[in-house]
Design goal:
Elements: H1 6-16, H2 22-30, H3 34-52, H4 56-79, H5 96-112, H6 120-139, H7 144-169
């Protein structure tokens, strides 16, 4: 692999990996596991359907989560980037855990946030996504660009959820 960002990415990773105890970074990384993140989105989907009596936002969020592997896995196979601590392994770019966390937590905030003028649902969602990404980098399971790419790849999915949630609530909310 080559490119202008590869060397700075690897340098940054070498500085950051294992600067925090593994027990902490492993717990942060686990926030991006499907059994942890997806139930949060499912609860928000149920709340959204009950609150706005419209299925479109919840279904859009569910489809967005279902599309995460369709977006991430082909790129992992195509790039075959090795991991920071496992140079013999491949498929680290982009980060599936970060994408799962972003779509689940930010998607949940988008589904629940329109009903409140409070900024805390999105602040919590962004914090959980950032915690996941940070844990993955500090633990050495992903390069910094792996998690950054995942965040960018999730933007179209999350914009679709936002649009559906905004339409369901209406402009007065």
């Amino acid at each position: 692999m080559s490119g202008p960002l590869l060397a700075p990415d690897e340098r940054l990773s070498r500085v950051l990996v294992r600067t925090v105890p593994d027990a902490v970074t492993e717990r942060l990384s686990d926030l991006g596991n499907v059994p942890v993140a997806v139930p949060v989105l499912v609860l928000a989907m149920a709340y959204s359907v009950r609150r706005c009596r419209a299925w479109a936002p919840a279904l859009t969020a569910g489809v967005a989560m279902a599309l995460v592997p369709a977006v991430i896995v082909p790129l992992k196979e195509w790039t075959a980037r090795p991991g920071p601590l496992e140079p013999w392994a491949a498929g680290y770019y982009p980060s599936g855990h970060t994408a799962t966390a972003a779509v689940a937590y930010i998607g949940a905030a988008l589904l629940t946030g329109p009903y409140s003028q409070r900024p805390w649902p999105m602040a919590v969602a962004l914090s959980l996504t950032a915690a996941t990404a940070t844990g993955l980098i500090l633990r050495g399971w992903h390069w910094p660009l792996d998690v950054l790419a995942s965040c960018f790849l999730c933007i179209p999915l999350l914009l679709a959820v936002r649009r559906a949630a905004t339409r369901a609530v209406g402009p007065a909310a």
